[in-house]
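pinned: reference chain
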Amino acid sequence: QVQIVESGGGLVQPGGSLRLSCQASGGTFSRYVMGWFRQAPGKEREFVAVVTWSGGGIDYADSVKGRFTISSDKAKNTVYLQMNSLKPEDTAVYYCAARVGVTSRATYLYPYWGQGTQVTVSS
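pinned: its structure tokens
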């Protein structure tokens, strides 16, 4: 049974940085791709970034390109999302998700989800 746990959220001022972590367990993760998604109040869940466990297949939403960096650490079964130059519009619950197969931006293709971690960007 695949389990995903996110951590690292919090309150940060505009222009600040946070690093989110996503710890995965219970699966053969060499076959998985890992995605980060976010959901702001009153909005649909949206794609943020995705990576394979080998570190390839990286893709970013246009809204975070150049500010966020996704990476994977196979030895620790952990995926990271380094978020720099944060903006108030980045405020959301951030979710980590896993699927078997190729990278995808489509939320509905990911069957395994964590519980989410809140990121609030405010002065």
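why pinned: The chain has a mean pLDDT of 95. The radius of gyration is 13 Å.
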